[in-house]
Each structure stands twice: as structure tokens, then as C-alpha cells.
Amino acid sequence: MFRKIITVPAAFCACLTLNVAPAGAQDAQSGEDAFSFKDRLTQDWGGVRRTLAEHGVDFQLTDQNEFWAIPVGGSQPSNNYIGVTTGQLSLDLGRLTHLPLGTLGISGVDIRGHPFSNQPLYVFNQVSGIEADINLRLYEVWYGQTFDHDRLDLRVGKLDLSHDFMGSDGAQQFMNASFSWPMVPDNNLYDQGPAAPLGTPALRLKYALSHDWTVLAAVADDNPIGASFLNEADPWNQNQDPSGTRFHFGTGALMFLEAQYHTKLWGRDGTYKLGGYGDTGRFPDQADSSVRHKGNWTLYAVADQELASLSGAQTLAGFVRATWAPPANRNQIANAVDAGLVLNAPFQRADDVLALGFGYGEASPVLRRAERRAGTLAQHAEYHLELTYQFQATRWLLIQPDLQGMLSPSGGVLDTAGRRVKDEAIFGLHSSVSF
């Protein structure tokens, strides 16, 4: 019986925070204003980092560590450690060569600890966005350039497409991986899709039609690792390409299209997205894994909206995202929804965030019927709750305590001992240091 309880982390990328003055404006600003490294522990390396940045070279190292305790539920109580160090190098070729060129970026990750969401938790969606197989691997390598007065943004290379598609700003505050990269592509695509720590050969276009409307499109290889869809010995498949240096083009094409509308409702900022993806590859049937189906597709909608301004700097925002995968015979997750509320500047701490989120994912009805016919426990829907607080201890250090609850893990499954996996209470502590 086909059952794929595997997901992908999507929070590895350490964002570049270099503040670069617009072209032509730098002479009017002091160097202190043009380049700032106050949000990095090692700051400007005695002036060396500033000099490099003035010539278009920037390097950033971010280290994330997490400790997790599962005292209740799952197949057994457990304590777990996971961590990842991400290095990113960005080269502004225009500054380096004084030619009309774009930016070259390359990044890699060093992943530590042991994944625990498959066992002992048996969940559809990973508890953490940095949970992955232990590897030192290439993450992304790309070239990007803008055209038409910066309205057209092109990027080509080995890309993590979760940076551009299906994303919600509000959802990024949470630690559960499904808020960063939704449960539907995570469980239904090859290697859980082009999301961290995996990049895939891709071409991505972003075009600003107007101040309010933006359109994004991408075409990519649909199999970041290049391995088979099912792998009992290595279900995440990441160890099939541990260095991340394989550039695969043999399974099929994955195509994304998304429209974004930026507006104000009742005087408050909001962003609304509608999109979908299609995949030309072949996918195993949910009732009989020896049968393959050609092609797959999914639709999604995302809404991020500021809801209220409270006392002082506090603001309350909300988000909701829904995904549908209509071909039920080839998708383990038929549909999923996640939503939440985000309070910015709680306790009047301008850089802190308090957030409450909810989500669920429903198993394919084809899979459910097949399990009933086989006399096994039929999977329905999995639900998850999360309460999290981002404490910005310093500009370069983030500490985030986290509480999650998993209800009906994987919609109802048995562990390796034949016992039904119980609902789970999960406590976590995350730290992130930017060097």
C-alpha cells in the first residue's frame, strides 16, 4: 500500500541584509548609511566587509539550532536536536566590472542532527523547517538580472522556488515546515519539490505589471535529486545526491504561474495571490504504486492582510492559504489549509512577533478507499496548531520558543509496532545567529 509520510524543510535560506544605496545616490550618503552590518555578529570585519560590499561582494553566515521535546504522543516520547549552518555569497557583477550585468549568488548548507518527524511522530508535515538528512550540500547557484527599469526580474540556475511561489509573509513567522512550504507540494511532488535544502535547475521570471499587480512564472526540472519517486530505504531521497551537485533533467518539467495583487483594504496593506503548478512527470497511483499516471497539477490561493493597529507600534495581521490537488489518484494530500494571526511588536518590542497558527491536510480519498479495502486503518485529515514567539534578543540573535500540537498524525496511522500513533504535544526552542 502506497504511503508517503515525508516532507521538506523550507526555512534554510539566510536572507542577505546588506543595505545598498540606489545607483546615483551613494555619493550623497555617507558610507555608514550606504552599508550597514549592525545586524551581523561580526559586523564589518574592521572595514574589510564594507570595502568588499562597495565592490559588490557580500558574504553571510547564519547558524540555526533547535531543541525539541515530545513528552506526549507519537510512537514514543523523545528529545531531539537539529541544526543547520547556511553560507551565502553574493556578487554584484555590475559593481565589480562596471558593466551592465546582474548578480551571481551561491549558497550551501551544513545540516546536523537527526530528522524526527517521520519517526517517532509519523506526521504529514515536518515539525521544523530546518529538518533534513545530514549532509553538507550545495543549496542554490544562480544568476539574476533586472530589465525594463527593474520591472522585469529574471533568475536562472539551481533555485529554491519556494522563495517566490505559494508563499505567505505571515506564515513565515512559524516553525512548522508546512507554513513555509505547503503540505500539498511537499508530499505530492518528487523529492518534496524545489524547496530547501533542495534547489532544482530552473528559470524564474517576475514582472511588475503595475504598482498593484505582479506576475511570476517559472519552468524547472521536477526532480531536484533525480531519484525515483518512491524509495523505501531512503524516503527523503536527499542521500541520493548528498552534495547537491547533481543537475537532473530526465523526469519531467515543473511549471509555476502566480498572480499577485497588492492593495489596501480599509486603509490597511494586503497582498492576495492566485496561482498553480503543473508537472509533466509520472506519478504512482495512490491505490497501486505499480501504476503510473502522466502529469499532475495543483491550484492555490493566498491572502495576507493587516487587520488592525493597536497601541504603540503594535499591529495585528492575518493570513490564510488554501491548496487543492484535484487528481486524487496520484496525490497523497488532496487539499490543505493553513491560517493564522500575527501580532507584531508585542509588549511594545518593535522587532518581536507573537503568532498563533492552524492548519490541516486531508489524505486522498483514493488512498483512503484502498486502505479500507485492504482492511487497514484509513487515513483522513491531520491537524496542527502552533503558538510561537520570536524574541529578537539582539539585531543578530533571534530566540524563538515554540509549542505545537499534532492531532490525528497522518490522518490516522499505525506505527511499526502496529499501534495507532497518538496525538502529539511538541515543545521547541530555536536560535538563529547571523554572522
Q: What is the number of helices? A: 7
Strand order of the largest sheet: 1-2-3-4-5-6-7-8-9-10-11-12-13-14-15-16
Question: End-to-end span in angstroms?
Answer: 47 Å
Structural class: mainly beta
General shape:
globular
Largest sheet: 16 strands, antiparallel, barrel
Radius of gyration: 22 Å
Mean pLDDT: 91
Order of helices and strands: HHEEHEHEEHHEEEEEEEEHEEE
Proportion of residues in β-strands: over 45%
Which spans of ≥5 residues are poorly predicted at pLDDT below 50? 1-10, 14-31
The number of distinct β-strands equals: 16
Compact summary:
This protein is mostly beta strands and 435 residues long. 9% of the residues lie in helices and 46% in strands. The chain contains 7 helices and 16 strands.
Describe the 3D structure.
There is one protein chain. By secondary structure, this protein is mainly beta. The protein contains 7 helices and 16 strands. The protein has helices at 31-34, 48-54, 93-97, 117-121, 177-180, 183-188, 365-373, and strands at 57-74, 78-92, 103-113, 136-147, 152-159, 200-208, 213-221, 253-265, 268-284, 292-309, 315-324, 333-344, 353-363, 381-394, 397-407, 422-434. A hairpin with a 4-residue loop joins strand 6 and strand 7 (213-221). The protein starts with 30 loop residues before the first helix and ends with a strand. Mean pLDDT is 91; it is low at 1-10 and 14-31.
Which keywords apply here?
mainly beta; 16-stranded antiparallel barrel
